[in-house]
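Reopening this one. Same input as before:
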Amino acid sequence: MVQSNETPTEEKKERVGLIIVNTGKGKGKTTAALGLALRAVGQGFKVLMVQFIKGTWHYGELDSVKKLNPNFTIMPMGAGFTNMGAREHKEPDPKDVRASANAWNFAKEKIASREYDMIILDEINNSIDYGLIPVDEVIETLKEKPKRLHLVLTGRNAHPKIIELADLVTEMKAIKHPYQKGVKAQRGVEF
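Same output, byte for byte:
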């Protein structure tokens, strides 16, 4: 039997950009998105994560991603812990409204730019749920996204319209958490 040194060429397939949602009350929504980003960068993709809530604390992923620059960028654009707004039947804090609007406008610009292969909208589901970003505006942008762009939306309480439009939805279910035993957030796990 003669062995060939040639490897079979993989049939070139056009990439279909997916809309992926990580939601639920359990831990791991952002962590799963970071795992997708790591895999995507390994495939030569350019990835952007826009953080809608995080912004005032220093998270470990901000240091890690520097090692993957310029292929992976994280933009913390939130105001930190946010007033629950519509979910709690009260007006959201104006600083949260501004921060979410700025993050959303930035994200829309980057989605349309065709500059990235994957964009993660971290905790956008929370921003929608809190009444900081109109769901119908998000839906319109998702429907108009470039065909090859993967979009990942994280955060609790994903809106039913987002879930319906998505290609892949994963719900993280809280079964047990160290916080229930009084253990505070742990470096390298929670932040």
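So the earlier flakiness isn't reproducible anymore. For the record, Residues 17 and 186 are 34 Å apart (CA to CA).
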